[in-house]
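Sat 14:20. Reprocessing the chain from the morning session after the first attempt stalled halfway. Input below, unchanged.
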Amino acid sequence: MKKKSNAGRKGTITGEIEAKLEKYFRIDATDAQACIQAGCSTDAYYRKLAKDERFRKRMEAAQDYLHIKAKEVLAKKITAVKNNSHAAWFLERRERKRYATRVENKNEGSIAVTYAELEGKIVAKSPDEALRMADEMEFDDEEE
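Finished this time. Tokens:
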């Protein structure tokens, strides 16, 4: 079996760039923002994600870091403080069906308004009335 050649271009994402990407993902930067700050293209980043499982897991962990820290802080506040406003806030957002404040709007019936009605013009209620109104308009035009 032939051994794969090591010839060719080296990967553009070095250890230094990986560290920078991780740094920016930890502060909740988007993929594009992190790549710009780290000095690599998003295409190179996505290629490396697809090829390197270790890199992908490291970047995913970095992207989750801030969310996990926020959850830890919230959990500490909920358990440490006697005022339950933090707990109520948490429940309102995480268990909306049970705890969120709801506003119910009930609309009954239907209202149809035409432009003619808005402009104060007379509107025909039936086809026969529309014909009669059209005939009257023709006579008005002839008199002028």
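The radius of gyration is 34 Å.
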